Amino acid sequence: MSIKRLKSEDYNDYSSTGNSPDNDSFYSSPDTSGSPPTLGNYQRLNERTGITTPVTLIHLLKGNIGTGLLGLPLAVKNAGIVLGPFSILVIAVVAVHCMQMLVKCSHHLCAKLHKPFLDYGNVVMCSLEESPKLWLRKKSNFGRWFVEFFLILTQLGFCCVYFVFLADNIKQVVDAANITNNDCNQNISTIEHASMDSRLYMLCFLPFLILLVFVQNLKYLAPFSMVANLAMLASLIIIYIHLFTNISHVQDLTRVGDWKSFAMFFGTAIFAFEGIGVILPVENQMQKPQKFPAIMCCAMVIVTTLYISLGVLGYICFGDEIKGSITLNLPPCWLYQSVKILYSFGIFITYAVQFYVAAEILVPLVEVRVSERCKMFVNLLFRTALVIVTCALAILIPRLEIVISLVGSVSSSTLALIVPPLLEIVTFQGEDTEAPRGGLRESSLKLGQTRRNSST
Question: In whole angstroms, how far apart are CA 115 and each of 67, 186, 284, 294?
């Protein structure tokens, strides 16, 4: 997932008379005057082109399905076979509601400030700038940097998880290479003998990931990303087939876990719902943003069904032996070894996409402090340092389930559950919760008329 930064050249200046809100270019769709700008009838400024509905659905699914999905069977074990699925459903409902709040605030501020789109950080900044309270207006830049800090923390946390995931899965493939055969009926997954430490595998991946993040234009990674998505899809299908055909631990499962293990469950579950950062970038690129709420709900129904089914089936299949990633429980035959390799390839490519978000925020802050001649060198050096930092953190906490739960509890929960409600309170403070009276077009006309009167 990537965050498209808001820059001055990304939108037209609507302060001039020719581009004022009362001009026909304000809408490219039928007039919605008289109705409030809810999520269903929002129209973007100068809406012309963008991604289609099916592509939007695919982006939302990809933004919410990653390594967190594979850790949900262990999460269900921590919460219990009864409490776990119910808790995932509750978290899904809350997460979707927070996503809707974020989109609603973005729509309201775009209409109010006459901007075609806003990213997460700029939504928070603009909301604080428009607040009637002076002390909040003074904190507008802090609000943006607060969100961007947690975006950086979340994305680099994902990168740490990817290091651990790659090391654990490839280590298991190499360790089992000597006994790997075509018999997939042996339901064993661990080979106990001396082997290279997983942290050394992380160091082996380090130079390759450094070279990967040197690719600064994601369009060059697009073909590899498509292959990676297909590889991950094929891996999930094979995993589901194995789970359905090997259900065995139905009777001796924990019904409800204790509060300590539930804390681990919560971190993993929130980590899995990692799509809050992709919501606005995808919605900003839609041809018909008024359809986004329905598409988002459809995508999250699919994602939640996938989460609950894999979590429950994985725990039922492997019982208390379930590991931080369900791929580590698969038998050592060539079919399931290929699953680990394919999914690892997908995660390897996805590392660059997750890293891109943090780099887009941090690298310009470093480049601006050096001369034009040194910018490229400093850019590459800083990217190298960031990758080394994620590798070092992964080495310090080499247990996959702990890294996932830590990232989910600290950063993912802040962006997905805490900021959106606070943002909605600030955005609609002192005005109607849905929109200004008279509808979007009427309020826009009044703003345009006020500007012309003040200029004369």
Answer: 35, 59, 11, 23
Cα distances (angstroms) measured from residue 263 to each of 82, 89, 258, 308, 401: 16, 16, 9, 18, 12
Sign of the C-alpha dihedral computed for residues 266, 272, 273 and 274 taken in this order:
positive
Contacts of 419 (CB under 8 A, 6+ apart): 124, 147, 150
Specify whether the CB–CB gap between 162 and 351 falls below 8 A: yes
Quote the tokens at residue 54: 């099916």
pTM: 0.76
Q: Is the dihedral of CA 354, 346, 49, 302 positive or negative?
A: negative
The 10s digit of each residue's pLDDT in 171-184 is 988 887 776 666 66
Give the three-state DSSP class for 234: helix
Its sign, for the CA torsion 168, 169, 171, 172, is: positive
Whole-number Å distance between alpha carbons of 392 and 92: 32
Q: Please, is 49 exposed, middle or buried when counting C-beta atoms within 10 Å of its C-beta (0-12, 13-18, 19+)?
A: exposed
Residue of 12 and 119 predicted with greater confidence: 119
Angle at 446 between CA 441 and CA 447, to 5 degrees: 95
- Split at pLDDT 50, 70, 90, the class of 388 is very high
Distance of CA 265 to the CA centre of its chain: 19
Question: CA distances (Å), 351 to each of 144, 153, 339, 389, in order?
Answer: 25, 14, 18, 14
